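note to self: dont lose this again. the chain is below, predicted strucutre after it. 335 aa total, dont forget to put it in the shared folder this time
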Amino acid sequence: MKVQFAPANLPLKRRLQTAAVLQWVFSFLCLAQICIALFFILLFTRFWLVSVLYAVWWYIDYDTPSRGGRKIPFLCSLAIWDYMRDYFPIKLVKTADLDPRQNYIMGFHPHGILVAGAFTNFCTGATGFGSLFPGLRAYLLMLPLWFRAPFFRDYIMCAGLVPSDKDSASYLLRQKEGGNAVVIAVGGAPEALDARPGAYFVLLANKKGFIKLAMEHGAHLVPVYSFGENEVFDQVDNPKGTWLRMIQDRLQSIMGISLPLFHARGVFQYSFGFLPYRKPINTVVGKPIHVEKREKVSADDLDALHQLYMEELSKLFEEHKSNYGVPEDTHLIFI
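---
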């Protein structure tokens, strides 16, 4: 394979964009493991007190992730996120107003490999979520596993990440003053195993937990489709039934996280590596679906609202696909 190296005379701005994305990919793939190792290594050094004191703090602070976390607006507005936004670039598109007196569940589709669009749009201020939807606070749900990593849990909470369990989401949706937008990558880890360029399907046909959660709390539903989310990484072929896919599915069922074998470009060359391609991501936020609060959710009502949500997501995709290079004969497929 012939390696295509990056030009030596690239402007500083592009180098800073690459550096911003590099630290994000590193944090996503490696930082949790490094934090866990550091916690235990320190115990056997003269700095053992650091880990002991952190363990005490962790015990005291244990419930914070499931109670809204600890989002720090200053850190979310750092210039590094602007560079990350411009690397792709990433854009947040508003189609309707959202009442800040209401709570919302935003269904984010598709998951992609590393949910670059979801993180940049809803965990940072780089794409203007706060100005587009004044009065709303976005919280992106992430696998609870990551909140069990010392030090790392505090880092991700700063960005507004909270565990993707019912208790964490319910805490935010119970707030009577409203203004909370819980963002759920509905397809989750299993959907990441099918994320590749040209894939226009979402794992949603049997995903009804977030619909039931919305009905129990009277939170309005907002479909979100991120055009380009699947385009920024390639993935090793792993069709269902192959040995690779069976291993991936098995590991996902055991650990709760998927392990897609993805690749794209490197830091100093464009031929291979784990940095995403510079391809645009346009995240379109649809209009809200009004949901009435119900103490008891019947199966028929749940199915009806789930069907309505799929119809609204499909409509959102159809209305905007031509703006982002999706062929007219391509339609969203629910699996």
